[in-house]
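Project outcomes to date are best conveyed with an example. Our students and postdoctoral researchers have been running inverse folding experiments weekly, and each run begins with a structure described purely in tokens. The record below, which covers 626 residues, was selected by the lab manager from last quarter's runs and is presented without edits.
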């Protein structure tokens, strides 16, 4: 091709210095463009001075030769991208049967080193179409056993391949010796512990590592207590794997904790994966006073660490101490956002006597405190908004006045933006509809009062008293007893008791709403100029000429079979406001009935205030409001 390209130089279509680059591209046929990615040269048109190139996402693209020489990089046919384009099936077979050959090919294609992300980008999804993680975990195990690959602990660092073989033990010992500082040496020791059974000379490696590690630990016991403790952990684990005894005079876990150090200071400097081990170490070193420090730590910990603290306390008979402290922190609004997030996620019936509206108030305070201290933590806020059942669960057993206070807290707080506030208020209204007036402020715009007889009011009040004083306490006992039976997932008594709890709380909310709107009356002030509450009417069914008597009574007094209609019922609404001689039409299903008002009188005084003092009659069998 050189002769053809030189002719183009003579014709002034390309520059002399571009010839070698074009020859290289023409010989390998594969190329890489900074923006269009990998491609294959399918044709060379020297007449029009162009390459025809199939880029992955731009097939059949024509590119001027001069521009191609300046912007394209020649790619070897042995490159993983070229191999995929030439014979994808062969590469897929290699991925299934020869993991190391494929990884070697990828690394060599990129100069002997590539990050995990780069390997994944090259192979997924065309080569590895499913379960990349499982495939890659298998590859890592094989690479660590091989003497040709170096797999770093950090995902962002490159995996490297070398032709000369280095045993696993040689590589790890070299990494350990090259590591600078106690922290890095401990990290390498942790890797050695994981593959201890695969080393050629475990005893020799353990002796070398522990001798060096002990020097670092002794040098940094006071200045780096957290790293020193971590070093002791992995030193002892490595020794245990090699079945070797410790060295006299070397630092121990008790030595570290015996210094003037705090649990919180130590654990905050170590990864989350070590937290459980640190807590257990602290318990063993401080058997008499460990619990107070662990309880305090729970309020200054991540939700995951808080869970570890609770597990340690429960497992060692100190759950009561934690629960008492948790209740105090919630009531005093001193609980942290992370502790409250843990409680929100857990919220098991173990904490039933703590879970309530005060928890939500404490959440608002904690979020506001973080905002004031410029602590950029939104996990609790996000969880509150995401978990649609959290707020209803916290307020479902509260008195209506407490719920109103919570509503005001939501309206006035800076912990949530306006959209989130509206969402939270909607959840409150769904659980307690009666707070809608407080939110909308429209109580003066529309009269929502319920006119009720004294007897029906007394009956509803009695039902409410029975629910809050008898049924709810009994239900709580049922839940507690059922919980003691064990596994809640298969505990039918527990599920039944919880379902009854939901029914009772819903009825409690309904009664609170209705009783808050109710106005008792004896109907003595009823007017007879037109049909209204407290009137007795005689009507004629014009369809059948049948004469009927109806008492139009309070919202909860309906009993159509006895001739009593709630003023809110559909039929009473048709009569409402009509005068003697007027007609009314009432449609039920497909049938329309016409009525004529023949007379209007006051109801007989069968419902009077004095009756409210008498025992409430049994609930009417007919549905209220008919």
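After processing, the design step wrote out the following sequence:
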């Amino acid at each position: 091709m050189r002769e053809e390209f030189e002719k183009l130089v003579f014709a002034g279509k390309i520059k002399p210095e571009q010839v070698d680059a074009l020859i290289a591209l023409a010989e390998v046929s594969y190329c890489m463009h900074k923006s269009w990615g990998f491609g294959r040269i399918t044709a060379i048109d020297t007449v029009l001075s162009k390459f025809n190139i199939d880029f992955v996402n731009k097939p059949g693209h024509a590119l001027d030769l001069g521009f191609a020489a300046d912007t394209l990089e020649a790619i070897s046919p042995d490159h993983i991208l070229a191999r995929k384009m030439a014979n994808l099936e062969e590469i897929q077979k290699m991925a299934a049967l020869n993991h190391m050959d494929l990884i070697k090919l990828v690394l060599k294609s990129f100069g002997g080193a590539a990050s995990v992300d780069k390997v994944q980008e090259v192979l997924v999804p065309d080569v590895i179409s499913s379960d990349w993680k499982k495939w890659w975990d298998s590859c890592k195990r094989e690479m660590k056993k091989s003497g040709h690959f170096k797999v770093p602990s950090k995902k962002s660092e490159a995996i490297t391949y070398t032709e000369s073989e280095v045993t696993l033990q040689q590589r790890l010992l070299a990494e350990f010796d090259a590591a600078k500082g106690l922290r890095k040496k401990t990290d390498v020791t942790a890797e050695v512990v994981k593959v201890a059974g695969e080393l050629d000379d475990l005893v020799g490696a353990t002796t070398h590592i522990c001798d060096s590690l002990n020097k670092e630990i002794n040098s940094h016991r006071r200045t780096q207590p957290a790293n020193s403790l971590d070093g002791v952990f992995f030193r002892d684990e490595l020794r245990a794997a090699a079945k070797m005894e410790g060295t006299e005079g070397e630092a121990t876990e008790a030595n570290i904790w015996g210094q003037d150090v705090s649990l919180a200071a130590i654990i905050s400097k170590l990864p989350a994966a070590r937290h459980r081990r640190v807590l257990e170490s602290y318990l063993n070193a401080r058997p008499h006073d460990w619990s107070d420090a662990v309880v305090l730590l729970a309020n200054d910990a991540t939700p995951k660490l808080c869970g570890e603290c609770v597990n340690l306390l429960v497992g060692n008979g100190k759950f009561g101490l934690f629960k008492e402290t948790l209740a105090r922190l919630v009531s005093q609004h001193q609980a942290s956002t992370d502790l409250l997030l843990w409680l929100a996620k857990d919220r098991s019936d173990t904490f039933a006597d703590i879970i309530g509206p005060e928890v939500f108030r404490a959440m608002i305070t904690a979020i506001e405190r973080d905002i004031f201290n410029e602590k950029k933590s939104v996990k609790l806020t996000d969880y509150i908004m995401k978990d649609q059942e959290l707020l209803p669960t916290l307020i479902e057993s509260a008195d209506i006045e407490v719920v109103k206070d919570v509503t005001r807290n939501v309206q006035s707080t800076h912990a949530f933006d306006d959209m989130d506030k509206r969402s939270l208020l909607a959840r409150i209204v769904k659980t307690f509809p009666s707070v809608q007036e407080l939110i909308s402020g429209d109580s003066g715009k529309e009269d929502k009062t319920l006119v009720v007889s004294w007897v029906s009011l007394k009956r509803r009040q009695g039902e409410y008293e029975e629910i809050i004083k008898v049924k709810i306490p009994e239900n709580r006992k049922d839940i507690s007893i059922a919980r003691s039976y064990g596994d809640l997932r298969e505990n039918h008594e527990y599920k039944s008791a919880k379902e009854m709890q939901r029914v009772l709380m819903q009825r409690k909310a309904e009664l609170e709403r209705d009783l808050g709107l109710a106005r008792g009356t004896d109907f003595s002030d009823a007017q007879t100029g037109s049909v209204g509450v407290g009137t007795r009417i005689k009507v004629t069914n014009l369809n059948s000429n049948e004469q009927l008597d109806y008492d139009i009574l309070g919202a909860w007094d309906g009993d159509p079979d006895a001739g009593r209609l709630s003023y809110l019922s559909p039929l009473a609404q048709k009569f409402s406001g009509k005068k003697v001689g007027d007609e009314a039409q009432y449609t039920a299903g497909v049938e329309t009935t016409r009525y004529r008002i023949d007379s209007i009188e006051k109801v007989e005084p069968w419902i009077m205030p004095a009756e409210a003092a008498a025992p409430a009659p049994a609930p009417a069998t007919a549905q209220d409001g008919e």
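The chain has five domains: 2-75, 167-261, 263-440, 450-521, 535-613. Confidence is low (pLDDT under 50) at residues 607-626. The training component of this project remains on track.
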